[in-house]
Amino acid sequence: MNEQTPTPISDDILVKVENIKKWYPVQTTFLDQLFTQQRDFVRAVDGVSFTIKRGEAFGLAGESGSGKSTIGRLTLGLEELTEGRAIFDGIDYSTLSVDENRKLRRRMQVIFQDPMASLNPRMSIGSAITQPLRIHYPEKAAEHRDMVLSIMDKVGLTPPLFFYNKYPHQISGGQRQRIVIARALVTQPELVLADEPIAMADVSVRAQLLDLMVQLKKEFNLTYLFITHDLATAKYICDRIGVLYLGRMAEVGPLREVYANPLHPYTQALMAAVPKPNPHKRRTYPMPEGEIPNPINPPSGCRFHPRCPFAKDECSRVEPELRELRPDHLVACHFAEQFVK
């Protein structure tokens, strides 16, 4: 790896993203390209910053289309940034070559949402989990089988030899998700991007998978970037959480603090949407109307103002910046003070 001046960063910070943006050009016809100078872009991520401490589980929550998965891919360098910087352990790896990125990749892995889409149906379970070792640790080829059997045992695929030569279609959905987890952890990474890791699992096994992820986090001292649309799930595993809306961060802070005192109307709406087991407890926050706007032409000012029940004239004109209203609790809302307890 070429030498580069490390980016100044606190020792306890593993990941730092600074004002990252990802704009996708809108495909147009040949005639439109010929006669129109202006180009439209899908602003999937439009200026997001956050940090993740070592050994922390940082959650990203929001509706579908808010930019969660895109931020995860940008954070790991799986997609090229339109603007901003993504820093891992003091290294701005957006400036690295392909070979240098590959060497760094063993320290970060992904747990994908749909195991059937991310697993090769013609590759046995043992081969699928071995593949990262072939790429990153070819010099340890003699140890690959033992390493794979060990990680299979740790994720609950027991006895490992029973599953080693089976194929994804021969086992249950919960077991397939355990394979994806095992494949992500077999290289002993420091950072794991968990992109809706239990969304495709049956309700009966989701709690088991969350318990497994918490256990593995402690055992391997992992750092999680946990992406979810379900705040109830985030509450189970995350230490801090960031709430996204239309490519921008609406609120970020310690999970217990954000849950106890949500300061952004959008966060309040997400909290109100979480089902409560007690039928006598009703929602205390009004639900927003309408759907998430088009990211090609987002609203001016605060992007949530067309749906916000508390919006005022200023909200449509001035875009709010993240500001700290409580210790380590930031919110992007002009009138968040009215919600401070």
Automatic annotation (TrEMBL):
Belongs to the ABC transporter superfamily. Pfam families: ABC_tran (PF00005), oligo_HPY (PF08352). One of its GO terms (molecular function) is ATP binding. Residues 15-271 form the ABC transporter domain. PANTHER family: ABC TRANSPORTER, ATP-BINDING PROTEIN, TRANSPORT ATP-BINDING PROTEIN. Gene3D superfamilies: P-loop containing nucleotide triphosphate hydrolases (3.40.50.300). PROSITE patterns: ABC_TRANSPORTER_1, ABC_TRANSPORTER_2. One of its GO terms (biological process) is transmembrane transport. Transmembrane segments: none annotated. This is Peptide ABC transporter ATPase. Keywords: ATP-binding, Nucleotide-binding, Transport.
